[in-house]
Write a structure and sequence with these properties.
5 strands, Arc Repressor Mutant, subunit A, two-stranded antiparallel ribbon, 147 residues, 3-stranded mixed sheet, Dna Ligase, domain 1, 46% helix, 2 domains, alpha+beta
């Protein structure tokens, strides 16, 4: 990760933590940074493996609880997916997902038409929509080539 990108990420993280009165620790930043380094909507296990290289004494439970705290504070989001592991998304900007049903890969994409999808009146009655995200399921190009 380039130094300017790392500095921007740290500044963004400090700002988010400050808004929620969450102390910035090297371990929390390493967890946050690990999410961005992986770029794959990782599970807690994958983040743990990345962070453990720098902090060998960190426990999986600490990483997992930190990720859940980040979600609760709005610093991070859960990603829809299949399988047993919960997946995380550090990209809080409006975007949508492509989900490969073969390998489980989840990729981001943007589409203004999807952003403008109207919420049906029957959904709006009795339900407050906080966000919209379209998930397209299919088979990625890597898996298609493996036939």
């Amino acid at each position: 990760m380039q130094e300017t990108a790392k500095a921007d990420l740290l500044a963004s993280f400090r700002h988010a933590c400050g808004q929620h009165r969450l102390r910035v620790t090297p371990q929390r930043f390493a967890i946050y940074r690990g999410l961005f380094r992986l770029k794959t909507h990782p599970s807690a296990e994958k983040v743990f493996r990345i962070v453990k290289r720098r902090f060998p004494n960190i426990s999986f439970d600490t990483v997992n609880r930190t990720l859940l705290s980040f979600v609760r504070l709005g610093i991070l989001e859960f990603v829809e997916g299949s399988g047993n592991s919960r997946r995380y998304d550090p990209n809080l900007n409006a975007h949508h997902h492509l989900h490969c049903v073969k390998c489980g890969a989840i990729s981001d994409f943007n589409c203004r038409a999807f952003d403008r999808l109207e919420i049906p009146p029957e959904v709006r009655r009795g339900f407050t929509v906080l966000g919209k995200r379209v998930v397209l399921q299919g088979v990625c190009s890597k898996c298609s080539k493996r036939k």
